[in-house]
């Protein structure tokens, strides 16, 4: 039925088809993570660990630099405004809260989407065009269980960790400006930071990073599995994957923030 | 011949891609223990037919039977169980890039059996020995030549001791000597492991070296099935043009692309 409608050229129906395909992939990936061990097909620890190293440990440096300098910029920009009101001390709390609630999770996710999302699509996409995915299927190995589920579990664990690292790096960036440029006493800076930074600021931010991890892996894997047309196809789908992830991350951020906002959090 | 047990039976298989009919009512029987070659020009549907037999593609109409059970009606779980009895050698070898030769060959064993890693390692050595690649366990696929990759692909295809092995263009892109080596391997494996082999190729030398029976596919239909000798002596002009590789004849690629000739109009 869906095929028939698609032939009629309706972009809406095509969109529905893409959505259903995407949901099917998502359900399959979660199914294998949760029920794999009960069906005698648990994820391989070694693969998950390798993915965690690739996705998490090897992203530490880029996340640190991006978030550290974001903290620096944020502190400088807010000091410019707050100095007019005589409240430069609040640079500490403003930087910490903005980083933990918003910039930490979102910028970390965008950086990781650029690095990991692209890598997932390129890897699975080139496996697709080189018959390797078909080879797995012929060997009765489910490609979603074998390739996608370990990546999803790994980033689900590592992105919140990277986000915490990003939060700390951003606060450190703000600290450098606050203490060494604005001349705020370092103890006072730290005290002000933690006076206004609530635990819920951190965990609302972290809750976003779980959603972003799902988006990055599943969009990357979906585009990889849909790759056709050789090297050109791999390049095209990798671009689509990164662009789609960026857009969905911002949209999801808006939705999750909206949920917390309207719940008066 | 008719009394021999049938391994794979294809009945009136039809498949259309984007309005183009690739398989147009294909009917075939492949007997247990034989090497059955499907030959035909590029784009005639032979690889598509092979993928129907492995259960990778669902047909628009028709049936594929493996030992009497219809693959097209099976659930994914049933199909997975059947697939474990198949092996497939791909045109590009399709080795997993980031795994060593040993990891590639042992992949189906690690996924589908609970064998001890040491036993798996011994089985891998045996399979690599069968394809003449002992000692190459720790190399990555990128370090191998085209012929070696094909042989590793072959070792992986037979890792689970399958009943049927499918070969998609096993000698494509190989020099004549390596092609002959691969052909000999196919024959040896058939004898040693009592396999049923289904080979898709357009390499004529290979066809006559390895085939027990040959089917000529043209425009999605089976033009002729017979022993290599029968095919060689065929009166069909399309078959003769294909065997001799002549430009002039019922298949006129220069004028009509690959769809030049009409079936039944030799």
How would you describe the overall organization of this protein?
The complex is a heterodimer of chains A (265) and B (266). Chain A is mainly α and 265 residues long. Chain A has helices at residues 2-7, 11-35, 45-55, 60-85, 91-129, 132-138, 143-180, 186-196, 199-225, 230-262. Chain B has a 6-stranded mixed beta sheet, with helices on both faces. A 4-stranded antiparallel beta sheet of chain B has the order 2-1-4-5, covered by helices on one side. In chain B, a hairpin with a 2-residue loop joins β4 and β5 (69-70). The longest helix of chain B has 18 residues, at 176-193. Chain B is globular, with a radius of gyration of 19 Å. Chains A and B meet through α6 of A and α2 and α3 of B.
Secondary-structure blueprint of this entry?
The complex is a heterodimer of chains A (265) and B (266).
Chain A: H1 2-7, H2 11-35, H3 45-55, H4 60-85, H5 91-129, H6 132-138, H7 143-180, H8 186-196, H9 199-225, H10 230-262
Chain B: E1 6-17, E2 20-31, E3 35-39, H1 46-53, E4 61-66, E5 69-70, H2 76-83, E6 86-89, H3 101-112, H4 117-130, H5 146-157, E7 164-168, H6 176-193, E8 196-201, H7 204-210, E9 213-218, E10 221-226, H8 228-232, H9 237-244, H10 253-256
Parallel strand pairs in B: 3-8, 3-9, 6-7, 7-8
Antiparallel strand pairs in B: 1-2, 1-4, 4-5, 9-10
Helix pairs in contact in B: 3-4, 3-5, 4-5
- Helix fraction of chain A, binned, reads over 70%
- Biggest sheet record of chain B: 6 strands, mixed
* Number of beta-strand segments of chain B: 10
Which percent range describes the beta-strand content of chain B? 15-25%
| CATH class call of the domain at 1-34 and 43-80 and 202-266 in chain B | Alpha Beta
CATH architecture of the domain at 1-34 and 43-80 and 202-266 in chain B: 3-Layer(aba) Sandwich
Secondary structure: number of strands of chain A: 0
Q: For this entry, what is the oligomeric state of its chains?
A: heterodimer
How much of the sequence lies in strands of chain A comes to under 5%
Q: Describe the global form of chain A.
A: elongated
- Note poorly predicted spans of chain A: none
How much is the radius of gyration of chain B in Å? Answer: 19 Å
| Topology pattern of chain B, helix = H, strand = E | EEEHEEHEHHHEHEHEEHHH
- By helix and strand content of chain B, what is the structural category? alpha/beta
Q: Could you say which structural class the secondary elements and strand pairing of chain A correspond to?
A: mainly alpha
- Please report the distance between the alpha carbons of the first and last residues of chain A: 45 Å
CATH topology of the domain at 1-34 and 43-80 and 202-266 in chain B: Rossmann fold
């Amino acid at each position: 039925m869906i095929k028939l409608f698609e032939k009629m050229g309706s972009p809406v129906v095509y969109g529905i088809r893409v959505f259903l395909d995407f949901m099917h992939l998502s359900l399959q990936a979660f199914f294998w993570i949760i029920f794999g061990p009960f069906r005698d097909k648990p994820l391989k620890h070694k693969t998950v660990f390798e993915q965690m190293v690739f996705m998490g440990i090897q992203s530490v440096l880029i996340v640190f630099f991006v978030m550290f300098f974001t903290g620096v910029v944020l502190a400088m920009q807010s000091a410019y405004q707050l100095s007019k009101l005589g409240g430069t001390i609040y640079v500490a709390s403003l930087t910490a809260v903005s980083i933990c609630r918003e910039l930490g999770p979102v910028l970390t996710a965008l950086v990781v989407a650029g690095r990991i999302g692209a890598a997932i699509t390129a890897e699975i996409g080139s496996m697709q065009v080189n018959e390797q995915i078909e080879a797995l299927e012929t060997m009765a190995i489910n490609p979603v269980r074998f390739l996608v589920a370990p990546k999803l579990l790994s980033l689900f664990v590592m992105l919140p960790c990277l986000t915490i690292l990003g939060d700390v790096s951003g606060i450190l960036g703000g600290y450098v400006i606050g203490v060494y440029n604005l001349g705020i006493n370092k103890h006072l800076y730290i005290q002000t930071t933690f006076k206004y930074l609530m635990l819920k600021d951190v965990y609302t931010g972290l809750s976003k990073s779980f959603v972003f991890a799902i988006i990055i892996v599943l969009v990357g894997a979906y585009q990889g599995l849909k790759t056709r047309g050789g090297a050109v196809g791999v390049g095209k789908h990798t671009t689509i994957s990164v662009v789609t992830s960026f857009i969905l991350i911002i949209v999801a951020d808006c939705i999750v923030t909206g949920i917390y906002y309207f719940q008066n959090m | 011949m008719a009394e021999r047990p049938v391994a794979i039976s294809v009945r009136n298989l039809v498949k259309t891609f984007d309005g183009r009919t690739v398989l147009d009512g294909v009917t075939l029987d492949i007997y247990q223990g034989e090497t059955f070659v499907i030959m035909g020009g590029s784009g005639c549907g032979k690889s598509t037919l092979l993928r129907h037999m492995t259960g990778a593609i669902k047909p628009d109409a028709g049936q594929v039977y493996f030992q009497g059970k219809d693959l097209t009606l099976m659930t994914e779980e049933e199909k997975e169980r059947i697939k474990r009895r198949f092996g497939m050698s791909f045109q590009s070898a399709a080795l997993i890039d980031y795994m060593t030769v040993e990891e590639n060959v042992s992949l189906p064993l690690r996924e589908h059996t609970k064998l001890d890693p040491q036993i798996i390692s011994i089985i891998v050595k045996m399979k690599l020995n069968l394809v003449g690649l002992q000692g190459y366990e720790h190399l990555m696929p990128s370090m191998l030549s085209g012929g070696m990759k094909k042989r590793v692909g072959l070792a992986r295809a037979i890792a689970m001791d399958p009943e049927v092995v499918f070969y998609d263009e096993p000698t494509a892109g190989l020099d004549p000597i390596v092609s002959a080596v691969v052909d000999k391997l196919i024959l040896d494996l058939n004898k040693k492991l009592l396999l049923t082999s289904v080979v898709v190729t357009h390499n004529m030398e290979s066809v006559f070296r390895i085939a027990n029976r040959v089917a000529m596919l043209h425009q999605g239909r089976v033009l002729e099935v017979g022993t290599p000798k029968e095919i060689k002596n065929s009166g069909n002009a399309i078959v003769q043009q294909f065997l001799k590789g002549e430009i002039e004849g019922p298949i006129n690629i220069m004028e009509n692309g690959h769809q030049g000739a009409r079936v039944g109009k030799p």
